[in-house]
């Protein structure tokens, strides 16, 4: 099953296709025309501000690469798509679904489950399983889904929210989960690291994380939630927190076969995605003053050149956390303690 799933991920069509409407509402057509045009990229918005990454074909390819990367890294697990021990789920929610890849794969793997993927923009999909629903919505607004979820999945939402909005989001997740339901989130660091000295200390690669973090702080949507989202999840009331830390290689330099394959995919993830990840932040909030589009493009070109050096062995960290909403019986026991 895992091998077939990987092959399907590698060969999934990327052409734009039809969009499944939500309860007969033609919201996708309307929202696909909204957004903020900035430096020849379109950034989706539903409120007074937009996403800091564009909703264009290049970023959708980046999302697909990150999905395949995470799948390969955990391909030896019984279930590479999520680690939470969810039993007999009926309803699963994917927040920040991007291209919808994770939601589609979970729906394909569990045909008896209704899987909803939600994001600010309609993804370019040409097929989804009948038990998968992709929706355009603002998850910071009150949720209107009637059925409680058995699993809420989140991934790569760094710099998407303010700290207050992050707490609000986890409270929404908690409120709309079944008692005993699970939350799971996967985040990656923007800081590139090297353990063996193969990259010089003055490499521009080590500048990336610091520079983008400063810009995101100015926007009040901080990067670096990988270090804090576990604490935020527990603050919302979740228990039985489990953590899995990773070192994701950039490039096919590891000797381990799985990591080599993952590194090759991650290399493409970075090459394709760097301009999209940085253009908004650096042209709006660059240090010491906002950059021009051309300055960002030169910076990204320098990053790509150094990443393309086969002699350097660099990586970035990632962290997966899953936690459980207490059951009603557990709450009764807590309340009965004198």
Q: Explain this structure to me?
A:
The protein is an alpha/beta fold and 338 residues long. The C terminus is likely disordered. Helix 3 packs antiparallel against helix 8, helix 6 crosses helix 8 and helix 8 packs antiparallel against helix 9.
Helix/strand layout:
Elements: H1 2-10, H2 27-31, E1 36-38, E2 41-43, H3 57-73, E3 91-95, H4 101-109, E4 114-119, E5 132-136, E6 149-155, H5 163-175, E7 177-193, H6 208-218, H7 229-235, E8 239-250, H8 257-285, H9 293-307, E9 314-324, H10 328-336
Helix pairs in contact: 3-8, 6-8, 8-9
Number of strands: 9
Biggest sheet strand line-up: 5-4-3-6-7-9-8
Q: SSE string, helix = H, strand = E?
A: HHEEHEHEEEHEHHEHHEH
Structural class: alpha/beta
CATH superfamily: Vaccinia Virus protein VP39
Number of separate helices: 10
Number of domains: 1
Which residues sit in consecutive blocks of at least 5 with pLDDT less than 50?
8-46, 332-338
**Can you tell me the CATH class?**
Alpha Beta
CATH architecture: 3-Layer(aba) Sandwich
Q: What is the end-to-end distance?
A: 51 Å
What is the general shape? globular
Largest sheet: 7 strands, mixed
* Fraction of helical residues: 25-40%
Mean pLDDT, to the nearest integer, reads 85
Domain Methyltransferase: 92-181
Pfam family, one: Methyltransf_25
InterPro entries: Methyltransf_25, SAM-dependent_MTases_sf
GO molecular function, one term: methyltransferase activity
């Amino acid at each position: 099953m895992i091998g077939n799933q990987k092959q399907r991920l590698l060969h999934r069509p990327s052409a734009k296709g039809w969009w499944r409407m939500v309860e007969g509402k033609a919201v996708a057509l309307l929202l696909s025309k909204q957004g903020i045009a900035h430096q020849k990229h379109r950034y989706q918005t539903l409120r007074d501000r937009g996403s800091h990454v564009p909703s264009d074909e290049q970023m959708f390819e980046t999302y697909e690469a990150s999905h395949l990367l995470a799948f390969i890294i955990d391909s030896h697990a019984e279930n590479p798509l999520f680690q939470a021990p969810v039993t007999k789920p009926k309803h699963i929610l994917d927040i920040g679904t991007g291209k919808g890849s994770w939601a589609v794969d979970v729906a394909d793997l569990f045909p008896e489950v209704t899987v909803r993927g939600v994001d600010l923009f309609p993804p370019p999909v040409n097929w989804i399983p009948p038990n998968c629903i992709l929706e355009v919505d603002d998850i910071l607004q009150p949720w209107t889904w009637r059925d409680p979820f058995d699993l809420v999945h989140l991934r790569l939402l760094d710099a998407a929210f303010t700290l207050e909005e992050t707490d609000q989001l986890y409270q929404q997740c908690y409120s709309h989960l079944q008692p005993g339901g699970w939350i799971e989130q996967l985040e990656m660091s923007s800081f590139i690291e090297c353990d063996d000295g193969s990259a010089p200390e003055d490499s521009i690669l080590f500048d990336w994380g610091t520079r983008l973090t400063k810009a995101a702080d100015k926007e009040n949507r901080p990067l670096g939630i990988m270090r804090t989202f576990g604490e935020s999840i527990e603050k919302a009331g979740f228990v039985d927190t489990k953590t899995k830390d990773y070192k994701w290689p950039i490039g096919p330099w590891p000797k381990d076969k799985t990591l080599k394959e993952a590194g090759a995919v991650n290399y493409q993830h970075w090459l394709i995605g760097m301009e999209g990840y940085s253009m908004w932040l650096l042209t709006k909030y660059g240090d010491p003053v906002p950059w021009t589009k051309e300055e960002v493009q030169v910076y990204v070109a320098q990053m790509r050149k150094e990443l393309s050096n086969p002699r350097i062995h660099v990586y970035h960290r990632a962290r997966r956390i899953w936690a459980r909403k207490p059951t009603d019986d557990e709450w009764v026991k807590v309340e009965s303690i004198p």
